[in-house]
Write a structure and sequence with these properties.
The complex is a heterodimer of chains A (about 270) and B (about 525). Chain A is an alpha+beta fold and about 270 residues long. Chain A has helices at about 1-40, 55-75, 115-140, 190-210, 215-220; strands at about 45, 50, 85-90, 90-100, 105-110, 145-150, 155-160, 160-165, 170-175, 180, 185-190, 225-230, 235-240, 245-255. The longest helix of chain A has about 35 residues, at about 1-40. The radius of gyration of chain A is 31 Å and the shape is elongated. The model of chain A is unreliable at about 35-50 (pLDDT under 50). The chains are: A alpha+beta (about 270), B mainly beta (about 525).
């Protein structure tokens, strides 16, 4: 009998212990759920209702403009407002090497093509970078956050395999907790760097010899497709990476052989 | 018998009249033109007034003098760049190539590039490698050969308490293997061993994945650590030995074939017309992995198979080199490039013509072509057949039995491919085509009892004469009676035939003094 009570007492103690554990687990769960709902989260509600953290928001906001700028610049010879330019298939295309004269090789017009392209791309996305920052701020402010920012510069870099935009914009978002972002970046995989270097090499040939040999390049670049279109005195080059499908179009006017003896001004 | 001769008429084949005009305008050096072009020799009115203009050639100015433009960030040099253009774009200009442009051999892992030191640093930074530049190697071939001789194998090292591996060169292994995968110090090098070799006891093992390795033609297996292994061969995907030792290309599947489109063998050969591509960029499917030897060869317009890099000529005219090109016709060059035939037009107005030749290779004929300048300009000045047909100097053919204007030679030298002319808006065209004007004075003798008999230049009355000279006129360029490249006749006849006396000859300027 004594053993029975002992067993009963131990059993009751165990049950109390189990209840205590259940209660603790329940409190933790409820606390976790409450924290999930009520703790301030640094998220942006997108038009579709999906939320994003500020980094992702900035990345997606900047990336779309970066892609757009890349496409536009790549089909215009790397200039937003090409000059000197030629019209081809409804688009103005930058002459990277140009001469007004007949029978002479061209004069290089854009010797540092990668740098020039980067600057043009920066100019293209500049207003949208500001807009993205402004959108981010206003969205948070509308939801009761305090947002402070220190405006910084941004730069675009074109390197093998990718193009990245680095924004040095310090943003601090506070409500009950504070989150600080020192910089944002958007990266786009791209084979444009090699295309720009090949274009520079073609320009080098054009300025020295007045023409370029396209089959020379496919020996070195198996993924490259070069199209050279001659129209009047212009040559329109389109370089395409067959793997990524990216292309870069530019024009040259070099070693022009006019109709007849060229004794007349065209 | 008393004979009296008098000219009865003048049989004149008249094509075009001509007048010579020349427009010579004084040019200056414009730092920038109104069109936005830098450093152009152009008429003063075309210069942008906000920039300099000097009454001399641009080569003679300081601001437009051509030199070398050095890009200090990329480490590249571009010759023939005007000072003004270089500086405005952020480059460093110098009249002579600076020392920074001196080339050397840049070793980039198992690859090499013959570039400048700064460029080498830049390329090394892209790949996360230490700069390995050798200025003592003086040409690209030696540079590439120097890396091909390097030992390659498995570099085993400890990383985060795990024995891992990188497939690399001995030099890179014994130095630091870089930070891209976290390695911090030199590892143990096992020549000709793959990282997946069981005996090395690393965490790397065989996988069912393949890759296209940079600078390589072939499809490679990849181990679980991401290192390239041997050339893809589906029959050896589970072969332990194949995942242990490095196999040369010649020891891999079908080494003498392009293996284009093969689902089981990734031994591609760029020179034979295949190259590693992802399935999405090609038309085939691999049994294992997502990469395949894509077929780079083509089929031309005549269903002839062409190899990658092969080029050939295509022309609007059925016959070329016979001084009978149609108006608006053009030469084209076609190139087989990455499985696609690309068309490259030669210069318009037949200022360029396409030339083609074939070379014999161990794999058959390989056609090469080029657009080159049509050297027609001095054909008409040649009076000797030998000079005319000197292909080192010009592209002309000799037409025997014909003569130009009143020259007394036994043939005419004309362009082999007639030049296109701006005939709808050009005084010069009249000059060129006018050289085909022909006057023929036919002499008749009156008989004593009436009637008359042709005694001199009677061939001018024959039916073929007019056609011969019309053809000669067409041989000079876009002159005379011609069809265009689409086969349509012109709105006008292309030549005029006039019969008259001395007055007409004088009018046409063809009368002999």
């Amino acid at each position: 009998m004594r053993n029975y009570y002992k067993h009963l007492s131990a059993s009751r103690k165990m049950k109390r212990g189990q209840v205590a554990i259940f209660v603790i687990v329940a409190i933790v769960l409820v606390g976790f759920v409450l924290a999930l709902f009520f703790l301030p989260q640094a998220r942006v509600l997108l038009p579709g209702g999906e939320s994003q953290d500020p980094g992702s928001f900035m990345r997606s906001c900047l990336k779309s403009k970066l892609e757009e700028g890349l496409g536009k610049l790549a089909e215009q010879g790397g200039s937003l407002n090409p000059s000197p330019s030629t019209s081809y298939q409804g688009k103005e295309i930058q002459y990277l090497c140009y001469t007004d004269e007949n029978y002479l090789p061209c004069i290089v017009q854009k010797p540092l093509l990668v740098k020039s392209f980067q600057q043009e791309l920066e100019n293209y996305v500049r207003s949208d970078v500001k807009r993205c920052v402004s959108d981010l701020k206003s969205d948070y402010e509308s939801r009761g956050y305090t947002v402070s920012s220190s405006s910084g510069d941004f730069n675009v870099s074109i390197i093998p395999g990718r193009i990245s935009l680095e924004l040095e914009e310090g943003i601090t978002i506070s409500k009950e907790t504070t989150q600080t972002f020192k910089s944002f970046s958007a990266t786009q995989s791209s084979e444009l760097y090699n295309l720009l270097l090949i274009a520079t090499s073609i320009v080098d040939f054009e300025s020295k010899l007045g023409d370029s040999e396209t089959t020379l390049y496919i020996q070195y670049y198996p993924e490259l497709k070069i199209e050279k279109m001659r129209r009047d005195a212009d040559k329109i080059y389109t370089l395409t990476n067959v793997n990524s499908g990216e292309s870069f179009t530019f024009a040259t006017r070099s070693l022009v052989w006019p109709a007849g003896f060229g004794g007349e001004l065209s | 018998m008393k004979k009296f001769i008098f000219a009865l008429g003048f049989f004149t084949l008249f094509i075009f009249t001509f007048s010579l005009s020349s427009a010579l305008t004084a040019t200056v050096c414009c730092e920038k033109t109104k069109l936005g072009a830098f450093c152009q020799n152009a008429p003063a009115e075309q210069c942008d007034s906000a920039f300099q203009q000097v009454q001399t050639s641009c080569d003679s100015t300081s601001f437009c003098k051509a030199g070398t433009c050095y890009d200090s960030s990329e480490g590249t040099c571009l010759d023939n760049t005007p000072q003004r253009v270089c500086n405005a774009n952020g480059g460093v200009w110098s009249a002579e190539a600076p020392a920074q442009c001196n080339l050397g051999c840049c070793v980039l892992g198992d690859q090499a590039a013959f570039v400048s030191l700064v460029r080498c640093k830049r390329l090394s930074s892209f790949l996360g490698l230490q700069t390995n530049f050798n200025s003592g190697i003086g040409n690209e071939v030696s540079c590439i050969a120097s890396v091909q001789a390097q030992d390659k194998g498995a570099c085993v090292y400890e990383f985060e308490f795990e024995k891992t591996c990188k497939f690399t060169t001995r030099a890179e292994c014994s130095a630091s293997t870089g930070t891209s995968n976290g390695t911090t110090s030199g590892g143990n090098f096992y020549k000709d061993k793959l990282c997946s070799a069981e005996e090395l006891g690393t965490i790397c093992g065989p996988s069912q994945k393949t890759t296209c390795a940079p600078g390589k033609d072939e499809v490679y297996f990849v181990d679980t650590c991401g290192n390239p292994a041997n050339i893809y061969d589906s029959s050896k995907a589970s072969d332990k030995e194949y995942w242990t030792n490095v196999k040369q290309k010649s020891e891999s599947c079908a080494p003498n074939s392009a293996n284009a489109g093969s689902s089981s063998c990734g031994n591609c050969n760029y020179l034979l017309g295949s190259f590693c591509r992802s399935e999405s960029a090609s038309n085939g499917r691999a049994r294992i992995g997502n990469n395949i030897c894509a077929d780079l060869n083509c089929v031309d317009e005549n269903n002839v198979e062409r190899k990658h890099g092969e080029s050939w000529c295509l022309n609007d005219d059925k016959q070329t080199g016979k001084a009978a090109n149609s108006v608006g016709s053009r030469f084209f060059r076609r190139i087989c490039m990455n499985g696609e035939v690309v068309t490259e037009p030669c210069g318009d107005f037949r200022a360029q013509e396409c030339v083609q030749d074939e070379i014999e290779t161990s794999l058959g004929k390989f056609s090469q072509s080029a657009c080159r300048v049509n050297r027609w300009q001095d054909c008409l000045a040649q009076t000797e057949k030998l000079d005319c047909e000197n292909t080192d100097r010009r592209d002309c053919i000799w037409k025997a039995g014909l003569e130009l204007a009143n020259e007394t030679i036994n043939g005419v030298c004309v362009p082999a491919n007639t030049p296109g002319l701006n005939f709808w808006n050009s005084e010069e065209t009249k000059t060129i085509c006018g050289q085909g004007n022909k006057a023929c004075v036919v002499t008749y003798e009156k008989g004593l009892f009436g009637g008359e008999e042709c005694v001199d230049n009677c061939e001018c009355l024959e039916t073929g004469w007019e056609q011969n000279y019309a053809n000669l006129c067409s041989s000079l360029g876009d002159c005379g009676p011609k069809l265009n490249w689409a086969g349509s006749k012109g709105f006008k006849e292309g030549y005029k035939k006039q019969i008259g006396g001395e007055k007409l000859l004088k009018e046409l300027g063809l009368a002999e003094e």
